[in-house]
Specification:
The chain is mainly alpha-helical. It has helices at 3-18, 22-34, 36-59, 61-67, 69-91, 99-108, 111-123, 126-135, 146-178, 181-203. It has one domain (3-209).
Length: 210
């Protein structure tokens, strides 16, 4: 893999990652509800899922999902149900600006729970496997050892993902400081509605669309 190839991959991956999706919306919501520092476990959960995803692509799981209607449907419905549950939770939120409420939220949401939410959202999304199965092999040199190349791709992909999520978390945290309480409440509801919309799109997603 040449440096030019890696730069092209980075540009394509950055565009895909920066497009609002479940994990960046969670980073935005976590930043507004808990602050940037407490949102970091969620980012690490998504990063961990990136390594799982790239490893799965290297092992051919994306091809399996593309070929198996049963396993594709299982992963799709699990992911859609979990996204919908998170969306409903955010829609029922009363906003993150109240300090006493933030303390209660922080007590209920341990770093492990925040990590697990983002990890499960990402790892149960079949779109990610299919997208990366279509994208990543194009940047792999078949004449060279493939695992080191996939390792480099995984590190670059995870680094870009973390950077984008950090930016979203900072935006969410700044919103808490700059906006009044009702505006922050609507920020939670916007993220919740977007997650529900993504759950609906995932539920109607078909392999033939890839």
């Amino acid at each position: 893999m040449t440096l030019a190839t890696l730069l092209v991959f980075s540009a394509v991956a950055l565009i895909a990652i920066a497009t609002p999706g479940p994990t960046v919306l969670l980073a935005l919501a976590n930043g507004s509800r808990f602050g940037v520092r407490r949102a970091i476990p969620g980012m690490l959960g998504a990063v961990a899922s990136d390594f799982v995803l790239v490893g799965a692509v290297a092992l051919g799981l994306g091809a399996l999902l593309a070929a198996s209607e049963f396993w594709f449907s299982v992963l799709k419905w699990v992911g859609a149900a979990y996204l919908a549950w998170l969306g409903f939770r955010l829609l029922r939120s009363k906003g993150g600006l109240d300090l006493s409420q933030q303390e209660a939220l922080q007590g209920k949401s341990s770093p492990r729970a925040i990590f697990a939410k983002s990890f499960l959202v990402a790892v149960t999304n079949p779109k990610g496997y299919l997208f990366c199965s279509a994208l990543m092999p194009q940047f792999i040199d078949p004449s060279a050892s493939q695992w080191p190349q996939y390792a480099v791709i995984a590190i670059v992909f995870a680094g870009l993902d973390f950077s984008v999520m950090l930016a979203y978390a900072v935006i969410g945290a700044r919103a808490v400081k700059l906006l009044h309480r009702r505006a922050v409440l609507w920020l939670d509801r916007l993220c919740g509605g977007a997650l529900l919309a993504l759950a609906g799109s995932l539920a109607f997603y078909r392999r033939s669309a890839t």
